Amino acid sequence: MNYIKHLNGVFLQFSKDHRLNPTHISLYVGLFQLWNNYHFRDSFHINREEVMAYAKIGSKSTYHRCLKELDHWKYLKYIPSHNPFQGSRIKMFNFGTSDGQVVYPYSAKNGTSNGQVVVRNNKHIQTLKNNTKGGKHGPPQNENEVVTFFKDENWPITEAKKFYNHYQSVGWKLGGTTEIVNWFAIARKWMLKETEFKAEKTIIPVSQNTDNLKTSSMKNFNQPL
What we know:
This is Transcriptional regulator. It comes from Arenibacter arenosicollis. By secondary structure, the chain is mostly helical. It is built from eight helices and five strands; from the N terminus they run H-H-E-H-H-E-E-H-H-H-E-E-H. Helix content is 47%, strand content 6%. The strands form two sheets. A three-stranded antiparallel sheet has the order 1-3-2.
């Protein structure tokens, strides 16, 4: 997938579509970044808070409205999930071809996209099948895959091994019952919690045995704060 040609194609389509507003575009760009993180898979799971942070959207109703409209207008395929432990899925359409020509989203109704048949590359389809078969939507294949991911996120190898050994010991399940369907999201949550934990450890508590009202210098209370 040539992401430069894809972006050129989709932004050309944005310029022609007067239904779009800046929120639609920022949401699409946020989803594109996640798609890039997942190495342009055929589909990928999303976390609402993560997408809203990427797109700088503060309202859940605005987020859901724009996401459904992008789906309705054939910029992507939104597959909602009613399972709190399994995020909704997104399927991104390819707007770029090898010759730079724009390819509009595929229509399941008539098998065409505005009269043009979209022909997929067989090698690309086989690669996607291999990725899915390898279980990349669920647990990682091995410890090395986790180590590589943590290194890409600028985290130490020791933390990657702690993460892998923990979830390997519980069978890659949440709460002991629910199977993990997106270990990348779980790893990012692990990193976030570890960052918060380290931040809490650096806070110096106020001593109860110290008179904190005393100061070594005279304060001029006529000056504004």
